[in-house]
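Protein modeling request. Please complete all fields; requests missing the sequence field cannot be processed.
Requester role: graduate student
Desired output: 3D structure, token encoding
Chains: 1
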Amino acid sequence: MGIISRSESAMIRMTFLLRIFVSLLVFVALPTLASKPLSVIHPDRPSAIDARYDYQIKLLKLALEKSGIAYQMRPSKIKMEQGRTLLQLERGQDIDVVWSMTSREREQRLRPIRIPIDKGLIGYRVFLVKHEHLKKFAQVHTLDHLRRFEAGQGSHWPDTRILQANGLNVYGATVYENLFNMLEAERFDYFPRSITEVWDEIQAHPGRGFTIEPTILLSYPAAAYYFVNKENRELAQAIEAGLRQAIRDGSFDQLFNEYYGECVRKADLRQRKVIRLRNPLLPDETPLLQQQLWFRPLD
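Delivered output (299 residues):
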């Protein structure tokens, strides 16, 4: 074995010290990496007058708090209609979580957290109509009667296909706010809205001759979920764990009642003529038998 030269010895020492330095860097960085907050970018409110997202944002924050994870939650910098929001989530761009009505197609494209965040109220629909058209809806008692009229809906919403599957005429629009302009212009006859949405919407559009039809209720089984990207298991697990903890400790119901208790009362559901629709888009995995997840005022 040859004698190691002074330069070779220096090189060995340098390599040894470099390995120690890299090891120390990794050791110091590990706690930082482990504690890095989970990114939770959610849809921003479509406009300053649109309060539809307030409950979903507060419930998401509640779930993340209950999960115990470190997280950084903020609205998306880009305002998007629902169709684009879902597409960006699928691509893993600009957004981390979306809330929306479920469908077979959406559950194939995205990862659902199968806890209905509004306990199924999204499937209880009353009509936003022009005041002068109230009389003609007073004569509607059955699904066949309703087929004489045309509904307005978002063209990318599952509701559109649900209504059409039940033989109802639907006028589709790609931009949410345009539906109010079209209703005012009488491009269609009625705008079916969830009882969790319609009260805020009519307040946000004063002076346009809109009113809530007081006698009819469309009802179909439906669930609104949080969705994340297919690959984002960590965020999905955190949201589900947090929601289940909120259900157990009662904070889920407390927030639900704070936002929607008055909506249910004002809708006066038991005094309405109920027109039940089938929902062919509802996935088989929907937890309909888990009674604690649903609010069923008509049962």
